[in-house]
Amino acid sequence: MGVGIQVLNYGQGVFEGMKAHRSENGTPLLFRPDRNAARLHDGAIELSMPPVPEEMFLDAVKSVVGANARWIPPLGKGTMYIRPLLIGTGAVLGLAPAPSYTFVIYVSPVGAYFKGGQLTPINLKIEESMHRAGPGGTGGVKTIGNYAPVLKVQYAAKDAGYSDILYLDAVECKYVEEVSSCNIFVVTGKTICTPPLDGTILPGITRRSIIELARDRGYEVLEKNVDWEELQAADEVFCTGTAVVVAPVGSITKAGHRKEYQDGNVGPVSQELYDALTQLQMGLTDDPKGWIVPVDEKFIR
């Protein structure tokens, strides 16, 4: 690839994040890969790229996972992270869509996303001057250009001892939207709230799954705006994402004011939903919704 390719100059690229778990009998298991295929498709359309057909996407994911199945950690010891990537690799000097594209997938064994290990409560800082996305933009698209701009404030927060940044809306600078790489949920009693998908928040597949699992367990789940006052009144807060799974929040700090949750421990709702999700992903419980897709033997080499 030369330096004139579109993605290096104008950023025409979308990607996905997925995981493969190893089941008790050793079979690699995928979680809702059809939703990743759909999100990559929608992102490609938004960035004027030819979408990858769902069948091609699913076959490619299974082929790459199957070819690298020996690198999937043992059950309960980690997962294989899967990164499908669609980028404009044709050369173009003026601002225009690429004349050609490359769809590629790479994988890597991974452990817990945040320092401290899985289910270790994280400490968030609300960012009031920098906004991750604005109305009418690409905040709801998993495009490569959405991530580098957050690194400056994210790493400043980490240097100050926080785990990550919690961003506010760009219009009123009042309502929470999401963390740098995951969605957020706020629990008060039997009610769970999460910011609505209004175009500035990534439509997380783990987010969508947690909403369904919580409703199945009798929780009222509301997709609504959440402000600092509601965060202060909440019983617990947690984040969701492919990489973080379900990450309990130990504290949130805004302008020097710190709100702590569950005395720094994992909250009961976070634990319940983490268990429900991960037991399903590892094939240890029934799958009435058909979310789990085994990688067939024919793909494993």
How does this structure look, described?
- By secondary structure, the protein is α+β, with helices and mostly antiparallel strands.
- 25% of the residues lie in helices and 28% in strands.
- The chain has helices at 6-10, 33-46, 54-67, 151-159, 205-216, 228-233, 268-281; strands at residues 13-15, 18-22, 28-31, 79-88, 101-110, 122-127, 164-168, 176-179, 183-188, 191-194, 220-223, 236-241, 245-254, 257-260, 292-294.
- Strands 6, 7, 8, 9, 10, 11, 12, 13 and 14 form a 9-stranded mixed sheet that branches.
- The radius of gyration is 19 Å and the shape is globular.
- The mean pLDDT is 96.
Task: Name the descriptors.
single chain; 301 residues; alpha+beta; 9-stranded mixed beta sheet; 6-stranded antiparallel beta sheet
